Amino acid sequence: MEPLSTGTQARIADVAARAGVGVATVSRVLNGHANVRPATRDRVLDAIRTLNYRPSSVARNLSLQRTMVIGALLPWFTNPSAVQRVRGIVDGLSGSPYDLMVFDIESEDRQRRAFELFDRGDRADGLLIVSTNPPDLEVERINAAGLPCILVDGVHSSLPSIAVDDVAGGEMATRHLIELGHRRIALIGDPPPEFRFDWSRDRTRGYEQALARAGIELRPAYVREGTRLLHVARGIAAELLALPERPTAVFAASDTQAFGTLEAARALGIRVPEELSVIGFDDIEVASYVGLTTVRQPLFESGRRGAELLLRALSGRQVDLRAELLPLELVVRSTTGPAPSSAV
Amino acid sequence: MEPLSTGTQARIADVAARAGVGVATVSRVLNGHANVRPATRDRVLDAIRTLNYRPSSVARNLSLQRTMVIGALLPWFTNPSAVQRVRGIVDGLSGSPYDLMVFDIESEDRQRRAFELFDRGDRADGLLIVSTNPPDLEVERINAAGLPCILVDGVHSSLPSIAVDDVAGGEMATRHLIELGHRRIALIGDPPPEFRFDWSRDRTRGYEQALARAGIELRPAYVREGTRLLHVARGIAAELLALPERPTAVFAASDTQAFGTLEAARALGIRVPEELSVIGFDDIEVASYVGLTTVRQPLFESGRRGAELLLRALSGRQVDLRAELLPLELVVRSTTGPAPSSAV
DNA sequence: CCTCCTCTTGGAACCGGTTTCAGACCGGAT
DNA sequence: ATCCGGTCTGAAACCGGTTCCAAGAGGAGG
C-alpha cells in the first residue's frame, strides 16, 4: 500500500480524471444524487477509494454557503457552570445534523477574536452565546448577517435568550437565610458587568428586596462584588468575616464564590453552619458532594433548551425574542442552619 | 443609519466597486501590504466602513490553505480532567496567532464526525487530541494530510504525545496504601479501552506490581473496571464494600471514581479514613477541596506543553515522536489513613 | 527628450468544491 | 425514418477571497 506523499491531498478533479468522468459526476456521487448510472458510480467510488479521497469541507462550505456547524461561545475559565451548560447543548444537538464547536471567550481579546470569526456567519450556521452579554455592535452584525443566535444565560433586547429570574433567585436565597433567623446577612455578588444594560437582572436586587421586605436594614459594608474566581471570593469573604460585627450568613451569587467563602471560614476556624451559614447559587456538580445549600438553576437544561431553540431558528421557524425563564429551586443541604443565638 | 438587508453581506468586489479600485487593491489594504498609495488606501477603508464589510474567513481559508485555527478533540463528559487540560492548552496558545476550537468526541459517533471534519487538515492547521487514543486509520490520514498533531494524555507510535507514567502512578498510589498497613486493597480501574495496543500504559499494572513487590496476593474479586462516570464507580464501590472480606482501602484510577467510592462508603455508613482509605488519581480541582488523597498529574501543564509542541510543529521544527512524560506526585490529604487494626 | 526604474494598480488565474444548463444518448411511438 | 421524452453526463459559472503578472504612471539620470 503506497501512502500518499505528505501534504498532498487528492482533489475532486483528480478523482474525476482517474474515473474518466467529469467533476460534476463525482460531486453527484459524493452527495448521493440520483441519475448516475450504477456502472459510472462504481468507477467513481473506486477512484475515491484508490486515491483515499475526502472532499475539502472548506471548499464545500464556500460553495454551499453552509457549514453544518454550530458555534458556542463561552467563558469557561471562571465559569464551571458553563461547562455543564455545554453538555446540555451537546445533548440538544444530538440527533441533529449539526456539529458543535466550542470557543473560549474568557479574555477581552479572545472575545473579540471569537466574534470576528463567527459574526459574519460563514464559520457556523448558528451561534449560542453562553454566560455573556454580547456587545451591541456584535449583535447588530450577527443580525445583519442573518445568523441565527440564541443567548444562554444572558439577555439582549434583540436576541432570543434562555435565562433565569435572578431577582427571584436572589430573593429566594436571602429569604431562606432570613427564615433561619439571620439578620446579619452579607452578599458576595455578581461581578459588575462592564456593559450592564439591564439592572433588574441581578441577584443583588433580589437580596435587597428580601431584606427590605423583612425590614432588615441594608448595610453597605456587607455587600461586596468581585469576579467569580474562587480565590477572589475567598479574599472577600475573609474581609467580611473580619468585620467587627461579623455576618452570620453569606449569600454568594455563585457556588464557586460560596466555596471560596467556605474556605475562608475554615481558615479562620469558623464552624459552618453553627457559626456561619453559607448559600450559593447554581448547584454545580460539586455542590451536592460538598453539601452546599444553594439555589439550583437548570444548567444542563438551559443548554439543551438553547440548542432546541437554535435548531428551530435554523429550520426557518420564528423564535420569540422574549427571554425564556427557567425555574429555580432552593436546595437545602448542610451549609445553612439557624442563626447563632448570641447574634440574635 | 441604514442597516444592511438581512442575510446580504458585502463582498470584496462590492468594496472594490464602491472605492473605484480593483479587488486586488482591496485585498492588499485588508492584509496590510505595502505599496498602496495612502489616498487609495483611505478610499478603500472608507468603502469598507460604509458597507460594514468583513472578509469571509471561509473564502480566505480556501485561498490561503490555512485557517489559523487549532482543533482540540476531547471527551469532556466523562472527563472533568480534560477540561482542565484544555485550560492549559488555551494558556499555551495565548500569544500565538492561533485560535482554539474545541470539539467533543464523547460518543463513537461524534468521534467519527470530528475526525471527518478535521483529518483532512482544512478545518484546522493543527490538532490536539486529548485523553483519547485515536484509531490507526485516522492517524494515518492525519499524517498523510501533513496535519501537525499532538496527543495529550494518549499514546500512539506515530504521533508525538504528552503523557504520564501510569504504571509508576499506579504503583505510587498502591504503595502509599501498603505503607499505611493495608493488605486488602481493591482497585477501581481504568475503563478497558477498546483498542488497547499498549498494555504497559496502565494504572492497573502499577497496582499489580506494587502488590507483588510487597508480597501481597492479588485477589481478582478486588480488581474491577468500569467507565469513569461517578455513578458507575459508586455502584462498583458498593459491591466491593459488600464483599465478605471487605477491602480496607480502595485505589480509584481517577478522582471521579474516588468520589463515587466515597459516596458509596458514606451511604453504607463506613467512615473514611478510619474504616476505609480511598486514594484517587489526577488531582482535579475539587479534590483539594474535598480533601481527597490522590496522585497528582499536571493536567494544566499537559495541555500547555501540548500546545507548545504543536506550535513548534506548526513553525516547521521537528517534534520528537517519543512520548514526553510529565511528573507525578503523591498528594496525601485526609481520605487515607492507617489500616484498621481489626483487619491487620 | 528618451530610457530605465520604481511604485501602484487591475485583470485573471487559482483554491476545491456545487450546480446550472445544454447536449448526447437511448428506447419507444408514429 | 423521424420525432419525442427521459436519463446521464460534462463544460462552465459560481462561492469570495489571494496573488501572480503585466502594464501604466511618474520621477531620475543620461
| Element string of chain A (H = helix, E = strand) | HHHHEHEHEHEEHEHEHEHEHEHEE
Residue share in β-strands of chain A:
15-25%
Q: Which oligomeric state applies? A: homodimer
Mean pLDDT of chain A: 91
Stretches with pLDDT under 50, minimum 5 residues of chain A? 1-5
Spatial strand arrangement across the major sheet of chain A: 2-1-3-4-5-11
Class based on secondary structure composition and strand pairing of chain A: alpha/beta
Biggest contact: A-B, 52 and 52 residues
Q: What kind of sheet is the major sheet of chain A?
A: 6 strands, parallel
The backbone outline of chain A, from C-alpha atoms, is: elongated
Number of strands of chain A: 12
Count of DSSP helices of chain A?
13
Helix content of chain A: 40-55%
Radius of gyration of chain A: 26 Å
How far from one another are the termini of chain A? 83 Å
Characteristic key phrases:
344 residues; 6-stranded parallel beta sheet; homodimer; alpha/beta; 13 helices; 12 strands
Describe this structure in words.
The structure is a homodimer of 344-residue chains. Chain A has 344 residues and is α/β, with parallel strands linked by helices. The first copy, chain A, contains 13 helices and 12 strands. In chain A, strands 2-1-3-4-5-11 form a 6-stranded parallel sheet. Chain A has a 6-stranded mixed sheet with strand order 7-6-8-9-10-12, sandwiched between helices. In chain A, helix 8 crosses helix 9. The longest helix of chain A is centred in the C-terminal third of the chain and has 16 residues. Chains A and B meet through helix 4, helix 5, strand 2, helix 6 and helix 7 of A and helix 4, helix 5, strand 2, helix 6 and helix 7 of B. Chain A binds a DNA duplex (30 and 30 nucleotides) through helix 1, helix 2 and helix 4.
